[in-house]
Amino acid sequence: MAEFKSGFVTLIGRTNVGKSTLLNLLVGEKVAAIANKVQTTRTAIKGIVNRENSQIIFVDTPGIHKPKTKLNETMIETSFGSLADSDLILFLIEATSDEIGRGDRRILDKIKEAKKKTILIINKIDLVKKEKLLSLIDLYSKEYDFETVIPISATNIKYKEIILDEIEKNLKEGPAYYDIEEYTDQTLRQLAEETIREKALKLLQDEVPHGIYVEVEKMKQRKNKNGEDIYDIEATIYCLRNSHKGIIIGKNGEMLKRIGRMARIDMEENFGVKVNLKTWVKVKEDWQENDSIVNKFKLNK
What we know:
The chain has helices spanning 19-27, 70-84, 102-114, 130-141, 160-169, 188-203, 242-249, 254-271, 291-294; strands at 5-13, 45-51, 54-60, 88-94, 118-123, 148-151, 172-173, 213-223, 229-239, 274-283. Helices cover 35% and strands 25% of the residues. It contains 9 helices and 10 strands. By secondary structure, it is an alpha/beta fold.
């Protein structure tokens, strides 16, 4: 019988490179918020893949960017901090790069420091010609001895097994750390917060989303009159300014209703039960510098 392998695999890359999309593809469930905006992932989210002979625990980290607040600094600390504990690193870059930019260079330096086995994943290959891809592979291969280089499009299911097989090959024999039924270490409360934030990111104007923080104040399961399970969820969306509050609520409350409706549909699909969701919006100007909030985004060992 084949030996059982397990290990922690850190996904790292610049912001908006497609890490969360790739994580959701590999796990086959929605564990990370996806929005076409930078800094969508704020904490290290774990996604678990159970295969016949292995358990792969992915750690999706916040994208590397220039820190402007205490929150940003914590996010970057989280990303680089997770490298030390990983068995394997998946370094995700964009096929459209012409050179090794400042952000990617910084990540490369941290990988070299960590001296960890690393697979280079080149995403968005559908946007470039083959020659460009080959010269990018050549450029990066001179920098580090990667286990392998896998060019992909993170939205395409056909790359899922190719990547998982390659990861499994590079893991050592080990136990299953999580129950085989689990696909994330996030609680339902965290998943609910992430879902609401993701919908807000998708629907709101550029400057508003990064100033929001979602907190689920109440989450209770009960039976409705037909005997079906239902979750009552009450959540507050915190924002930085009064003007942002107006945008989030929208004319006649329309925007907040849209965010809530999209989040509820997603949660019902993810949790497998009906959801009764209520949302409020409050202004908390300093939350990105507030230790008690920022500490929630630190890496949980």
